[in-house]
Amino acid sequence: MTAAELERFGVELDAVRARTVATLGQRDADYIRAIVKAVRYTGVAGRGLLFLGAFVHSLLVPAWIVGVLLLALSKILENMELGHNVMHGQYDWMRDPHLDGRTYEWDIVGTSDNWRKTHNFKHHTYTNVRGMDDDIGYGLLRIFPEQRWKPFYLAQPIVAVIFAILFEWGIAIQDLRLGRWWYGKTSNAQMLKLFRPVGRKMARQVLKDYVLFPLLAGPFFLPVLLGNVVANVLRNLWTYTIIFCGHFTAEVETFPKDSIVGESRGHWYLRQLRGSSNLTGGKLMNLMSGNLSHQIEHHFFPDVPANRYAAMAVEVRDICRRYGQHYNTGSLPQQFGQVIWRILRHSWPSRPVTRAPATQLQS
User: Fold this and answer.
1) Which end of the chain is more exposed for a tag (fewer CB within 10 A), N or C?
2) Is a pLDDT exceeding 50 seen at residue 362?
3) Residue 237 belongs to domain spanning
4) Which spans are transmembrane here (predicted)?
């Protein structure tokens, strides 16, 4: 695109946002409140079935399985469609203190304050800018050829699986920058100060899921404990899959730091487009992914209620087509297959690739 085309590209996308925001109202409020109820009721039902299976032996296995699935569903909905979207300020216009993006605390071991810093600010401002977006590989994985190879990356197929299972814990410690502490760039006193709020949140979550609720089952502590562990792991695996499919598919690009110097609104949209990918799958996929099946639209409009993304995507896709820009979308198996390929391919040594900065992509 030329500079003039880029400017019009940005103006058209801004207009999509403005038209949508102008129509926000009761149906959006009803939607998110319905999600709050769904999180609450599936969570209560899941925990209730875990207890039922513990006390009624004939129902132990089926009640345990259904209980785990319902509890995992509750945790997925809370993380993806409720917590993540609320913390972006998508529902601040409702003036509901329970849905305030600045104060909402979600149901994982990581603190919301750290997420608002690493995700809402760093990731969404500097999307896929190397050295500024910590979500590129999360400091553990080499996903793009532009990342310098280290012998540690040979183990990344195994590291990636462990990271997926423990995803909430990885998110929890992301902002601690443990590498700086390990190499002496952060003192023990500084690390202790940083860790205190994280440690308190970890302790609360562990106490709730792995001590309090299992203890309520008395002698059947272990089945309930195991149910909570499995529900959290299922949530972690699903969250990991959706997030990685939205950021690390084959056609997603990274950018050097100088790409954002003097970046216009149109360039910003272009960088978001080329740093994101969508998932097909319809309404169920939209719900279960927190509408991150529309990752492109989320990166364009992070503070717009995510239940609007499907409708906005029709206009966004048409705008991208008219300006000759690729709109990256595909099925979950297709996109996750590309993620797996990246993880395996870039675990092996290769020379770092240098690409043109985004400011040079218009020609």
Assistant:
1) C
2) no
3) 3-360
4) 49-73, 152-173, 210-234
